[in-house]
Design goal:
The complex is a heterodimer.
Chain A (H helix, E strand, L loop, with lengths): L9 E10 L2 E2 L1 H10 L5 E2 L10 E3 L18 H11 L5 H12 L4 E6 L5 H13 L10 H5 L3 H10 L5 E4 L5 H14 L5 E8 L3 H9 L20 E2 L1 E8 L10 E9 L12 H14 L8 E3 L6 H15 L4 E3 L2 H4 L6 H15 L18 E2 L11 E8 L3 E8 L3
Parallel strand pairs in A: 4-8, 5-6, 5-7, 11-12, 11-14, 12-13
Antiparallel strand pairs in A: 1-2, 1-9, 1-10, 3-4, 7-9, 10-15, 14-15
Helix pairs in contact in A: 2-6, 7-12, 9-10
Chain B lengths: L3 E9 L3 H6 L14 H6 L2 H17 L8 E4 L5 H8 L11 H5 L5 H10 L5 E5 L4 H15 L3 E8 L4 H4 L7 E8 L7 E3 L3 E2 L8 H9 L6 H9 L3 E4 L7 E6 L1
Parallel strand pairs in B: 2-3, 2-4
Antiparallel strand pairs in B: 1-5, 1-6, 4-5, 6-9, 7-9, 8-9
The chains are: A alpha/beta, B alpha+beta.
């Protein structure tokens, strides 16, 4: 039964991304529709093993002089996305600032490692220089979880609530949830939300220690899947309270959240936490499962995560719902994934297509849900869901809808 | 808007002088609260946060299994991250898989959920100097949607001093049980907002916050203990976040 929503929908008045496919919505939707993967061997730093990654190859903008202390790859990736005129995120935030006031606009950014990449290099210096960090080292402004969010807040001249959410791979989705609540509760009129995460040694070598890095481009939901391909990305979205001016914009309906309460790095064997997150999202949005037209899976391409997610999805949607996992295109962008994949579902709604599960050749016979191997164009999509599940058993499912 | 009440508070601070100086009650880490297998794996930061959270739930007489939670910390698992970072300059060095998954910011939130079989949403936030203010705001905001109780934990442990001295010279964790229900409430709080400073901030407290970000909660904890009502500062920045506390 469809019931009344438990939270007010927020308008998504602008969104954009920088990821391995390039800058902006167009580059990503082009890669998704043509099923062309940019995953390639890592170039950014040296590793003792092989890894395909979704690496951002284009030059990144300089951090402005007045905010130089915030210099990090993470902040640069965020700035490139913010400044991409075609998608207009900066323009929309600046318009909202004039309309509502700087103090009524929040900034909530998800990340798993923030500016850790720069800190890693600083440790190389520390170990050679008698436990002294290099002169330009600034942990709080470069590496602390909130550094990139604070940089965006200062760059935009905003003064409302500002914090980071760092719940591993669900961070970006939970930032979207927190932003929607602040608008629903009338603390903010608009919130810049999203996720930003960049490649670093700790993540690659950490996942390798768990035997989870694929030596080839990842193959989500494949019978012969061999692990994750890590990626990097910024995914930024502007949420605003609904008004006559933004009726034409897509809407954030709800985000469901849950915990596995099972293990730090293994999902609940029956996918109970994942199921709870999807059901909670449907409940908050006042929707039944049959209202969802497409599900973007978390589908990291590890043996256990994909198997468990497939069980959970089947338990909610049976085999009725077209699903795909898109980490074969973007790589697993960790703390940005929840925001990036919400953006993928928004592109699917806007351009009426369903992405493929890039890399998938032979569907795992144990996976009973409807997983697509090829992109489908001209699909009449109205409402979509995106799943994100992280370490610590931290789960979130985001539901967005086409303009009303 | 729903009214939000505070049902209990608890502090875990291994440095007892801080509690004496600020006339607060608290305890050292209680390792017996954590099963042996998990105790070996958890850092000081998680043990402190879990101690404060457990005591807050006991005082409020609430079942932790039923509570959504908000964990706020500047550095989170900073010691675990530091130990891993020291291995990274040698590209052949192998990392411990347990240490790796224990380096994420939501490690404490994850262990708390496992320990208490809690499948409610748990979040882990960070906001440098505004950590407590933003933690309280996020908690207030969640309770507007979900009636019932919620656990807020704000914590930071000892840091290697080459990272951001004096941050991390003192370890401190505190926990509040917040609720939409008035039964057994200690106080009611307003939504955290930025307000002009009415009187100058206590210098000793500002010094403390500079070396232990989670102690931004101290004025609120003192007001709860002394049953004082008034506008309470939640950070020491130029833009001062406040909440109004009514006992």
């Amino acid at each position: 039964m469809t019931t009344s929503p438990k939270i007010k929908a927020a308008a998504i008045t602008a969104y954009t991304t920088l990821n391995a496919c390039g800058l902006g919505k167009q580059a990503l939707s082009q890669a998704l529709k043509t099923n062309q993967s940019p995953l390639a061997p890592l170039k950014l730093f040296e590793l003792a093993f092989n890894a395909y990654v979704g690496e951002i190859k284009q030059p990144l903008p300089d951090i402005p002089d007045n905010l130089k202390a915030y210099q990090s790859r993470n902040a640069q990736v965020a700035l490139a996305a913010l400044n991409y005129e075609e998608d207009g995120v900066r323009h929309v935030v600046e318009t909202a600032k004039q309309r509502y006031g700087a103090e009524r606009i929040g900034v909530i950014i998800g990340t798993s490692t923030s500016g850790l990449y720069e800190t890693e290099s600083a440790y190389g210096y520390l170990l050679k220089h008698d436990e002294t960090m290099p002169e330009n080292f600034n942990f709080v402004k470069r590496h602390a979880y909130q550094a990139t969010g604070r940089f965006l807040q200062l760059e935009l001249g905003l003064t409302g609530a500002c914090f980071a959410i760092s719940t591993a791979c669900s961070s970006g989705a939970k930032a979207i949830a927190a932003g929607q609540r602040l608008i629903d509760n009338n603390v903010c009129d608009a919130v810049l939300v999203g996720g930003v995460d960049t490649l670093c040694r700790l993540t690659l070598r950490g996942f390798n220690s768990l035997d989870l890095i694929s030596p080839e481009p990842c193959k989500p939901m494949d019978a012969n899947r061999s692990g994750i391909s890590i990626g990097e990305a910024a995914g930024l979205l502007v949420l605003e309270k609904q008004s006559d001016d933004n009726q034409h914009c897509p809407q954030l309906l709800a985000v469901g959240e849950s915990s596995d309460a099972h293990h730090m790095s293994h999902p609940h064997p029956e996918g109970l936490g994942a199921k709870l997150a999807m059901e909670s999202a449907l409940n908050l949005a006042g929707l039944e499962a049959s209202s969802i037209d497409y599900l973007n899976l978390h589908a990291t391409a590890t043996k256990i995560n994909d198997a468990v997610e497939a069980k959970a999805v089947y338990s909610v949607f049976a085999d009725k719902l077209p699903c795909s996992g898109t980490k074969g295109i973007t790589g697993h962008t960790l703390g940005a994934a929840g925001a990036l994949e919400t953006i993928i579902t928004l592109l699917a709604l806007e351009q009426q297509f369903i992405p493929a599960t890039t890399g998938l050749q032979t569907l795992d016979p144990d996976c009973q849900c409807q997983v697509l191997t090829k992109p489908l164009l001209n699909q009449p999509l109205k409402i979509t869901m995106s799943n994100s599940f992280g370490f610590g058993g931290n789960n979130a499912s985001v539901i967005v809808a086409k303009k009303s | 808007m729903r009214k939000i009440y505070i049902k209990s508070s608890a502090i875990c601070c291994p440095n007892a002088e801080v509690l004496t100086q600020f006339e607060l009650d608290g305890s050292d880490v209680d390792k017996t609260l954590i099963p042996a297998v998990m105790r070996r794996r958890t850092s000081l930061t998680s043990k402190m946060a879990i101690t404060a959270a457990t005591h807050a739930c006991e005082k409020a007489n609430v079942n932790p299994e039923k509570l959504p939670s908000v964990f706020a910390s500047l550095g989170g698992e900073i010691q675990v991250t530091d130990a891993l970072c020291r291995l990274l300059p040698d590209k052949d060095e192998l990392l411990s898989p347990t240490q790796f998954h224990n380096s994420v910011h939501n490690t404490t939130a994850g262990y708390w959920g496992i320990l208490n079989h809690c499948q409610k949403p748990a979040t882990a936030i960070a906001a440098v100097d505004d950590g407590f203010a933003m933690g309280l705001l996020e908690s207030w905001s969640q309770l507007q949607q979900t009636s019932g109780d919620l656990l807020l934990v704000c914590y930071d442990e000892l840091w290697p001093q080459y990272l951001a001295a004096p941050i991390g010279k003192i370890a401190f964790a505190c926990a509040l049980v917040l609720s939409t229900e008035v039964d057994n409430a200690l106080a009611i709080i307003s939504v955290p907002e930025i307000k002009p400073v009415e009187k100058s901030l206590n210098k000793d407290w500002c010094d403390l916050v500079n070396s232990a970000p989670a102690t931004a909660a101290v004025p609120l904890l003192q007001a709860l203990k002394q049953q004082e009502s008034g506008l309470i500062p939640l950070n020491i920045n130029a833009a001062i976040w406040h909440t109004y506390l009514q006992n």
